[in-house]
């Protein structure tokens, strides 16, 4: 099942090695999707204030017959929110939406606002991070991290703050292995979470992917998600389809080093 194995963050918190992503799942569909994920063994649920589905993600977890400490919940500080007090306020909103007393992982969603990608928000990120350090020390968050951060963005936090980010959630899939960033994160013991492991579905009809998946008697989606694990990253597949939700967690196979190398040579299908 999806919760058989874990990654260990550098402060000792264990995180299930496959997460259920809820990006682009509307609030009205989130309850059923998260319930299905929990029914199929997922114990790691990823959401964000910006997804506008925290209420039903939280309700699904509360209504399911599972204790809070057995579910790993991640949410994120909206990308446009930069600063100390506003971070504390946004965290309070997330906790209220989810109906929980604490988060297992809280991430800065991006180093810049989505409508101004590349903007230098270093000072704002540092202030937000210091607020998250406070929440961490108070026990309101078990682990803190970032998302979509490049090396320079992470280094700025390391240079100015007390706690090195414990996770960095980035787009990672066949054709986009982000080797330099992955190596940087490894050097700093930062777990890399792989969102969009299926390249938002665009890679699943690739003939070579289909052929290799058939070789292992798995689906193209399973091959793509397993690829993330082979690189030591934590995949966050998303689906609202019951069969695919189950399928995405069934990864009890390995890809040979030779085939991993072939997959590494793919070009980014989404860049074309």
Automatic annotation (TrEMBL):
<dbReference type="InterPro" id="IPR018170">
    <property type="entry name" value="Aldo/ket_reductase_CS"/>
</dbReference>
<feature type="domain" description="NADP-dependent oxidoreductase">
    <location>
        <begin position="18"/>
        <end position="266"/>
    </location>
</feature>
<dbReference type="Pfam" id="PF00248">
    <property type="entry name" value="Aldo_ket_red"/>
</dbReference>
<feature type="binding site">
    <location>
        <position position="109"/>
    </location>
    <ligand>
        <name>substrate</name>
    </ligand>
</feature>
<feature type="site" description="Lowers pKa of active site Tyr">
    <location>
        <position position="76"/>
    </location>
</feature>
<feature type="active site" description="Proton donor">
    <location>
        <position position="51"/>
    </location>
</feature>
<comment type="similarity">
    <text>Belongs to the aldo/keto reductase family.</text>
</comment>
<dbReference type="InterPro" id="IPR020471">
    <property type="entry name" value="AKR"/>
</dbReference>
<protein>
    <submittedName>
        <fullName>2,5-diketo-D-gluconic acid reductase</fullName>
    </submittedName>
</protein>
<dbReference type="InterPro" id="IPR023210">
    <property type="entry name" value="NADP_OxRdtase_dom"/>
</dbReference>
<dbReference type="GO" id="GO:0016616">
    <property type="term" value="F:oxidoreductase activity, acting on the CH-OH group of donors, NAD or NADP as acceptor"/>
</dbReference>
<keyword id="KW-0560">Oxidoreductase</keyword>
<keyword id="KW-0521">NADP</keyword>
<dbReference type="InterPro" id="IPR036812">
    <property type="entry name" value="NAD(P)_OxRdtase_dom_sf"/>
</dbReference>
